[in-house]
Amino acid sequence: MHRLFPNWLFGALVGFCVGVLAWTGHSFFGLELPRLYSVAFYSVGAAFGAVVGSLDRTVARWCAGTAVVVGAVSFALGFIGPILLEPDSPQGPLLGIFVTGPYGFIAGALLGLVIGIVQQYRRPVMLKPTVGLNTLT
Description:
The protein is mostly helical. Helix content is 69%, strand content 0%. The longest helix has 29 residues.
């Protein structure tokens, strides 16, 4: 199958987009960072995405899968939760869009990276047969 982009480039683009969303939501935590730091958010996101995209498929699949699942659940909680708790607030869904969604995606990607690396390097345990176990006298 011929792909439009190599895996590392696709990962870098996705990582860059997540870095942009993470930068837009950082002020929720009370961080007042200079605008120049936005380049660091974008660069770290792109670098992390490129590294994950170039890794073994097992690691990349775990990383992408858990990032999507954890990101979607945290986005839904951040989007629907404020609507249920404070229905009159017009800015409630923005929590899910700019804060819980991107940071949940990042947390899921890191969790998937750890799980994928553990799965890749886990060796099956081979039991050695012992003498005399199957003999009845």
